[in-house]
From TrEMBL:
It comes from the Bacteria. One of its GO terms (biological process) is phosphatidic acid biosynthetic process. GO terms for molecular function: 1-acylglycerol-3-phosphate O-acyltransferase activity. This is 1-acyl-sn-glycerol-3-phosphate acyltransferase. It comes from Nocardia colli. SMART domains: PlsC (SM00563). InterPro entries: Plipid/glycerol_acylTrfase. SUPFAM superfamilies: Glycerol-3-phosphate (1)-acyltransferase. Keywords: Acyltransferase, Lipid biosynthesis, Lipid metabolism, Transferase.
Length: 346
């Protein structure tokens, strides 16, 4: 029986008291089987070729066929990273049937084309963006500095990422407004409500702030359970972007790994309702189920009012009533049955 040791140091100092912080560290990352240097070089060349050719092909492809092209590119990119894609659709309709008919060859998607949907998922690392786009193309709310990263920066620009600067709390209502506008326009937007990355075996609470966009626009929310497995079917933490990781160190670790599977599980769609905190709790329950975080309940907090967006108040307990601040004061702003649908080889 394998023993796994998790490193959970105290959270590092952050820019402000409400900034999400993960206790995951280097000790959370467990190595798995690896490929040789030649295979790594081949994967890098494949990634480079895809990123060079995609902008040109996307431009010359008719609008109606771009979604298929983009999904194909994302799946090929995931394969170049050494991962297979596994999609499990657990959604059921009002009659208790699966969202995809038995025997159907149609791929599972978050929502029909032209239909707005907020996709909510726990955040593990930068590979999450590729894995989610491999199911169906969508936009993302992601850290603002991602556009400056090598390789992923260009991809982030092409995917029209909505940047969020966690250090600038006052900018959050504007991010919520952008998400709402994109949802109203019929786009699919993925958000990571934990506000930071975790190792995959541990996770934080779903912060309610970004859920306001779904409430304001009456947009359905698709909870997604994302995890990475090794070649033996055991959950692994190799893609975890935690601690002092840089993009380069994380990319080397991913590219050297053998036999990883990105498993994307589509849970039952949640109605937006009128209360973002309730919506956040429902989505977290749908994604986590009875699963317990290895680092425990580290994020039991509530939120204070900041215009239309509340922010976390670390000074009160989770069961305390919500605190509303006077509007003129400085307002910091910022949270069935399983059935495999398809598997794409890596």
């Amino acid at each position: 029986m394998r023993t796994v040791v998790f490193d959970a140091p105290p959270a590092q100092a952050t820019a402000h008291a409400w900034m999400p912080s993960s206790p995951c560290g280097p000790g959370c990352i467990e190595s798995i089987d690896q490929v040789g240097t030649g295979r790594v070089v081949g994967r890098l060349l494949g990634v480079a070729g895809l990123l060079i050719s995609f902008p040109v092909l996307n431009l010359v492809t008719p609008q109606g066929k771009r979604e298929r092209l983009q999904r194909g590119y994302a799946r090929t990119l995931l394969s170049c990273l050494g991962m297979e894609l596994r999609i499990v659709d657990r959604r059921i309709d009002q009659n208790g049937r699966g969202a995809v008919d038995e025997g159907s060859t149609a791929p599972a998607v978050y929502a029909p084309s032209g239909t707005g949907a907020m996709v909510v998922v726990g955040h593990i690392g930068w590979t999450d963006i590729v894995a989610l786009a491999a199911v169906q193309p969508l936009g993302f709310v992601a850290r603002a500095d991602m556009v400056d990263w090598p390789v992923l920066g260009k991809l982030a620009t092409l995917m029209r990422v909505i940047p969020i600067e966690r250090e600038k709390l006052r900018a959050l209502p504007g991010v919520v407004a952008q998400v709402g506008a994109r949802l109203t326009a019929g786009e699919r937007i993925a958000v990571f409500p934990e506000g930071t990355t975790w190792c995959g075996r541990a996770y934080g609470s779903m912060r309610p702030a970004l859920f306001q966009a779904a409430v304001d626009t009456a947009t359905p929310v698709q909870p997604v359970r994302l995890r990475y497995l090794d070649r033996h079917g055991v959950q692994c933490t190799v893609p975890g972007f935690v601690g002092e990781d840089t993009f380069a160190s994380s990319a080397r670790r991913v590219l050297r790994s053998r036999g990883m599977v990105a498993e994307v599980v589509l849970e039952s769609v949640q109605a937006p309702g009128t209360d973002r905190r309730d919506l956040a709790r429902r989505c977290e329950a749908a994604i986590r189920g009875a699963e317990l975080s290895r680092h425990g309940a580290l994020d039991a907090t509530v939120w204070i009012e900041a215009g239309k967006t509340r922010v976390q108040d670390p000074s009160v307990g989770a069961d305390a009533p919500e605190v509303r601040r006077p509007p003129r004061r400085l307002r910091p702003v910022l949270r069935g049955r399983g059935r495999r649908v398809e598997t794409v080889g890596g």
